[in-house]
Structure formats: C-alpha cells, structure tokens
Automatic annotation (TrEMBL):
Gene3D superfamilies: alpha/beta hydrolase. It comes from the Bacteria. InterPro entries: AB_hydrolase_fold (IPR029058), Dienelactn_hydro (IPR002925), Dienelactone_hydrolase-like (IPR051049). This is Carboxymethylenebutenolidase. It comes from Zhihengliuella halotolerans. GO terms for molecular function: hydrolase activity.
Length: 232
C-alpha cells in the first residue's frame, strides 16, 4: 500500500455535487471506517479532534462538512445554519460520504460505524435508517431533534445512545421515547446510556460550559468498545 497521509482534507462526490470533509487515518494506514457527524457549530477543531482520536484507536474516520466550510461559536448563528440545512440534503450528503469511505483503500471493514453529536446525533440515526446494512453501528450523542427519522423500520445497525439528564435542548424523556421507538420498530440491538450532565457534555470546547470530563470519558470508552464490537 502506498504511504498514507494520516490527517487530510478530502473532496468527494456526494448528492450530485462536490463535498468536502476531514479524513483521519491510523498510523498503520488501515482500519475499520467510521463517519463522524458534526455539531451545529460546523466542522470545527473539536470534530476534527474526534476524528483524530478515532484514528488513534485504529479507525479510518471521515468527518463530512455539512455546512460548506462555515463554522461558528455563536448559538444563534449555529441555529440559523442548521435550519438552512434540510434534513434530506444532509442525509444524502452523508450517504455519499459513506460510499466514499467504504471505497477508500485504507478501510478494512465491509461496513462503517457512525458517531454524531448534537445536530449530528439525529443525522447519525437518519444515516443508519437510510443506509441499511452499510452502517453496522450508530452512536448518537444527545441531539436537538434535527434530522431524527420518523421511522426506524429499515434500520439494521446496532445503536448506542448517550444522552444527558439535564439536557434543556433535547430532554431525557424525548430520548427515552426515541429509544423505545427504535427498539420496537427496528428490532436492532439498542442501548441508551443516560448521564447526570447537560447538553454537549462531551465537547471540551463547549462554550455553554456543560463539558464534563468524567461523563465524557465514560461515554467515549463505551462508544469505542461498541464500535469495536460491531464494525467489521
């Protein structure tokens, strides 16, 4: 295999247009594939760091840019950018990213995993419901209700959710209802974990101040173990 660049910006075709993303590859140049879905802030340094951390765990991680290069740390602007991204368009772009990742020579798995945060939590579930057996593990972290599917009947991926009991943007009761719906409609392996924390507790750049190192590390360890068990 040719020498690989561990971390790079990439361009690929998706949904009939040119799309961009950030690709992180393990040091040995090969591993299972994982799609990383951004928060409503955009493809920020934090999301790139998540991809890098996955690469350090042995995964080939691709974080598609859903906002066309735009990022922000202002909640109102982030909400506006999210509102301008139709759920269907975002799901199509992620589908193209999935095919692109599976086609990379560095990817040593027949399926991909998908992990997403905040806005990406809903898009991870939409991607898994849309792509069927191409996605074998879906890991949503919290969510804001954006892009959450109406139906999970076509979802075959195992699902591990990470939700916050003090989340004002996506209450725990909504997450529990979502957990119930996924389990009943898909018949897939579904486990949700709930943390005594606030929204975006995993984001160590979180401007809202909800980052919790204890809960973030526990959730990350669980997510990595889950991906290892299901992405082959």
């Amino acid at each position: 295999m040719a020498e690989q660049t561990p971390h790079q910006n990439v361009t690929f075709q998706s949904a009939g247009r040119e799309a961009h993303g950030y690709l992180a590859v393990p040091e040995d140049g090969q591993g299972p594939g994982v799609i990383v879905v951004q928060e409503w802030w955009g493809l920020t340094d934090h999301i790139r760091d998540v991809a890098d951390r996955l690469a350090a765990e042995g995964y080939v991680a691709l974080a598609p840019d859903l906002f066309g290069g735009r990022t922000t740390h202002d909640a109102d602007e982030a909400g506006q950018m999210m509102s301008e991204l139709p759920a269907e368009e975002g799901a199509r772009l992620l589908a193209g990213a999935t095919d692109y990742l599976l086609g990379r020579e560095e990817v040593a798995s027949r399926t991909v995993g998908a992990i997403g945060f905040c806005m990406g939590g809903g898009f991870v579930l939409a991607l898994a419901a849309q792509q069927g057996e191409k996605v074998s593990a879906a890991v949503p972290f919290y969510g804001v209700g954006q892009a959450v599917p109406d139906s999970y009947e076509d979802l075959t991926a195992a699902v591990q959710g990470h939700y916050a009991l003090q989340d004002q943007m996506y209450p725990a009761d909504a997450a529990r209802e979502q957990e119930r719906q996924i389990r009943e409609e898909s018949g897939a392996d579904v486990v949700f974990h709930y943390y005594d924390a606030g929204h975006a507790f995993h984001n160590d750049e979180n401007t809202a101040g909800n980052y919790s190192r204890e809960h973030a590390e526990l959730a990350w360890d669980r997510a990595i173990s889950f991906l290892r068990a299901h992405v082959k």
